[in-house]
Amino acid sequence: MGLMDEIITPPLSEVKEGRGEEESLATEEAVAVKNRDSFPQILAKGRGEMAQAIIQAAKRLDIPIYEDPDLLEALSALDVGSRVPDELYPLITQIITFIYEANKRFGYESL
What we know:
By secondary structure, the chain is α+β, with helices and mostly antiparallel strands. The chain has one domain (6-105): name from scop. It is 44% helix and 22% strand. It has helices at residues 12-16, 21-27, 49-60, 69-76, 89-105; strands at residues 6-9, 29-36, 39-47, 65-67. The protein has a four-stranded mixed sheet, sandwiched between helices. The longest helix is centred in the C-terminal third of the chain and has 17 residues, at 89-105. The radius of gyration is 14 Å and the shape is globular. The N and C termini lie close together (8 Å).
């Protein structure tokens, strides 16, 4: 794919609901996950402006954005560059399925 395989965010409606624009931006989070050397790894993560930059990069590069607040919380606790722990693999499988389906829908080659 590109620089990142997947971006994980909370549902955007959850981020913006009942908050002002500035507060919404400050609480938005994103985590970028890349499959490296046969295992998923945290490529980037951030809150506020950094999250916006990650999301904008994903959009610019046509990288799917997967919205899951529980997975985001678990992945946000990891350091950039660290391997995603085995116990999160079932959730990562959901992401791979999401990417596969998105690629099929938009006519991209499969993984």
